[in-house]
Amino acid sequence: MENATPSPAGNGSWSPRIIAFFCNWCTYTAADLAGVSRLKYAANTRTIRLMCSGRVDPQFILEAFAKGADGVLIGGCHPNDCHYAEGNYKMLRRFQLLKRMLKDLGIAEERLRLEWISAAEGEKVKSVINDMVKKITALGPLDLPGKFADWDREMTALAHAVESAPVEKEVAHA
Amino acid sequence: MYTPKKHEPVRIGFYVCHCGTNIAGMVDVQALARYVATLPNVVVSRDYKYMCSDPGQEMIVQDIIENRLNRIVVAACSPLLHEHTFREATRRGGLNPFFFQMVNIREHDSWVHTDRQLATRKAMALARAAIQRVPLHKPLEVKKVSINPNVLVVGGGIAGIHAALVLANAGKQVYLVERDPTIGGHMAKFDKTFPTLDCAMCVLSPKMAAAGSHPNITLWSYSEVVKVDGYVGNFKVTVRRKPRYVLEDLCTGCQECVEACIYKEPKFRDEFNLGLSKRKPVFLPFPQAIPPVVLIDPETCIELKTGKCKKTCVEACGDRKAIDFKQKEELREITVGTIIVATGFQIFDAKRTPYYGYGIYPNVYNALEVERLVNASGPTGGEIILRNGQVPKKVAIIHCVGSRDENSNRWCSRVCCLYSLKLAHLIHEHTQAEIYNFYIDIRTPGKSMEEFYCRIAEEGINLIRGRVADVYPDPSDGATGRLIVQAEDTMLDCIMKVPVDMVVLSVGLEPHSDTEKIRRLFNMSCSSEGWFLERHPKLAPVSTFTDGIFLAGCCQGPKDIPDSVAQAGAAAAEAFSLIDKGNIEQEPNTAFVVEAECSGCKSCIPLCPYTAISLLPDKKKAYINEALCKGCGTCVAACPSGSIVQNLFEDAEIFNEIEGLLAPTSF
Question: I need a labelling partner for B539 at 20 to 30 A (CA). Which of B116, B353, B431, B567 fits?
Fold first, then answer.
């Protein structure tokens, strides 16, 4: 076997989980083709099929990160090839905006990826997924649920601290 | 039909398919079934060898009845393959077919991963997503759209002609559009065909004539499709009819104008004979051309170029008045329900393999040129006469030029071995020349092909296994144009240098150079080589990913004539089956607006590529015309108030999928 994919978990070690949104006509079919061609790639992606990449709501992406995804991959038809004329351009616009926002949220750029993969490009499904797994493995876990839990704990602790602090009887108002 | 009530508890049946060992070999299906059984709402969880088999489907039907299931999830192959099968089984069990969700654990899992534990883990996550999604499914109705019975066939080679005739004979109105001035395609250029050695034109010309005169076929030659709008059942197609400066209805094909042309001798390159002969500015491509209508080439006609010709052609035409120098190109719009694409191939340009000397040494020919040379109606009347006027005594035929070659095209063009053997036979028959065929492997699959090979081999041609490295002029004999063919005979393990008078390059088949343009026009996909991609290599070999558009002939990949004709028949049958049904069932994945939540912001309206969304003027709410909506979901994703819902892909369903895919793994 020639694939030098990162060894994903199974033995307790961490390995990224990537949510993939693939459009029905190009990229999902390309992933089917990769299967029919018996190409081998890393087992880290979990695919959700949508009719068009234009259906990808930015909330889906944020939700995926919030629920513990280490990366999100969006696959659509090449420019000009969209089954619905221009849904992929709509996705591209949202992608550009969202990328800036993710940066502000402290989520590394490499964790969100948009790729144009046509129905004939089974090979590209393989190379994109393997490459993404490699890059995200290097980045390490995002673990937003863990961070949320930490923040909750901090907030609770803070709230406790505030409540139990001795209340000053007189407050000087200058 | 049974529709579960809202308050009724969800009861899911889960089925995992072994697909023989295709899935079970890499995914622990029993463990998967056991795991899913522990998930909420799951009542039945089973694994079975072949879920798509009758007993597999029957199991679903029985379970629905006996266990009062109201949701079905099947983990098997791609939904693009068997979603329909299992929706049907769900329906037969008495449920609305859309209370079903499919999990792809073959193409997206067992076939692409190598670690059984990881593949099983992935299958569990995918199954869990479906189990969390399916309770939200709603009963949906399949929409039926009527289908226009007219058919467009693009390309008038043997595949297009055959498809058009099959449909026209069944009483359908067919538009046959051909880019060249005549139909017939490559086959019209061939001399004899393998393996029977019957004459190509003898079998083709009756079909061409039938297509040309069929009352149900509108033949538009010298025309190109320039625009395709709409969808299966109702395509609006614009065809550009190029001016031939001759009125088709009035021209009788007498060719008196050709006689009378101011050019007394043919002077210009004859495309049909690949430049091996000359034609006049007004010409008929070849004697059996269909339609039998001459055309005038604006590049070479003096009248069209300068307006200063004596117009002897018009004089000759006389009362028929068929010549019209003012003819302009026309755009014609037609409506059809289905389209068959049969645009064929182009031959490999042998100049891309310069070491074989094509275009450098006059005695190097490509195989299509030789087809014309051996053809009785060809430029030499069927005599094989070289460009220097001599008859060759020794001929080398080089196989696999532009095929099976890392530097040009990697695929096997499938027909070259056989046509090379055929040409060896024909050249020998015409000239008694000594023939050397240089091959990599002889590939002769198909009915009667191996027998043909044996027959030709026994005729005494020299078959040499070895790729030719070089073709160069014989240094001892510069004047006659004799060439040396250098190759390694891999059987004898020696370098051969064979002096020959003529070299024939068996060029391969490749996609048209403007394939990309055609692909875009019809919204199809191409394989990485550039051939149009069929929907499924085995189960839907003539369908494309665009409903209502079918493929026939070499545009889908190299083929011989019998296979092209068979495929054309199949494409015609597919089109006919759609037409005869009268309507098409459409996936009910359209979107609708929840009026109570719509703020009337109009963000969605410009996003829709089908202008299906409008603002209700009285209510100030968006409204989606379901008949126009194609179900892309772009508006749904963009709606700021989340008031647009896409059937089958509701936000809540996707969120549940995400959650299911990422739920903490406890296994």
Answer: B116
